[in-house]
Amino acid sequence: MRLPFLVLTPACVFLGASSVIHSRPGVDMHLLLLALLGAVLAHICVNTLNEYADFKSGLDLITRRTPFSGGSGALPRHPEMATPVLVAGIASLIGTSLIGIFFTWKYGTGIIPLGVAGLVLVVGYTQWITRRPLLCLIAPGLGFGFLMVAGTHFALTGEHSSFSWLVGLVPFFVINNLLLLNQYPDLHADREVGRNNLLIAYGTNAGAIMYGLFVMLAIVAMILLVVSGELPTLSLVALLPIPLALLALSGAVRHAENIGDYPHYLGANVAVAVLTPTLLGASIMLG
What we know:
Helix 1 (about 10-20) packs across helix 7 and helix 9 packs antiparallel against helix 14 (about 265-285). By secondary structure, the protein is mostly helical. The longest helix is centred in the N-terminal third of the chain and has 29 residues, at about 30-55. The chain contains 14 helices and no strands. The protein has one domain (about 5-285).
C-alpha cells in the first residue's frame, strides 16, 4: 500500500474541506471522514495495482529503489504475496466505488463525472497512462490537485464550486512535479518495460525545464488568486515550501537520472507536495 506515501491524500482532502469552510461555517464530519476514506482507498488502489503490475512486468527487479521512488520492493522479497496484493487493489477499488455510489444516492449524478475520471486515472495509470508522456505528466495533478479537492467539496455540499477548482491549481502544479522528479531514478528501468513518460520521450533536460515551469506557474497562480481576492493574503504562506522545490530542481539539473543517489532532493520534493496544500488549506480556514 506504500503507507508513507498516503499522507498526500489527507492534505488534498483537507484543502477540499477548507474550500467548503470558505463559503459556510462548518462541515459535516461524518461526510468528511467518508470522503477521506474514499480518497485513501483510491490512493491505496493505484499503489497496490502499480505494485502488482511492476512486479509482473519485471520492473521491480531492475529499478533503482530509493526511499521516495521505485516502489516498496515488497513483492520481489515476497513473490507469494502477488495475488493478495492484487486482491487488495481490487477490494480498495470496490470500496471507493461504493462510497461514490453513496454520494450519488445522496446528491444525485453530479459527482459521477468526477468519480469516473478518478477511476480511469486509478485503473489506467500503470498500463496506459505511463505510456503517454503528456498525460503521464499531468495525471498526478489531475487526480490529487483537482479531482480530490473538487470531489471533497462536492461530497460535503452536493454542489460544484469554481473556488475548489481554482484552489486546486496550486497543488496541481506541485503534485505533477512530485511524480516527475520521482521518475528520474527509474528512467532506464521504465524504458526497459515499455513506459514512455516525459523523461523517456524528451530527455532529462526537458524534464527539468517542465519542473521549473510548474514551479513558476504555481507561484503565479497563487499570486493571481490573492490579488484577485479569491484567496486571503495569508494564503501566500503556501509559497513557503517553494525554496525546497528549487532545491529539488537543482538536484535534477545537476544529477539527472542519478538523483536517486542524493535522496534529500527527492525528500524536498515530497515536502513541497504535502506542505503546499496543507498550508493553503489552513490559510483559507484562518483567513
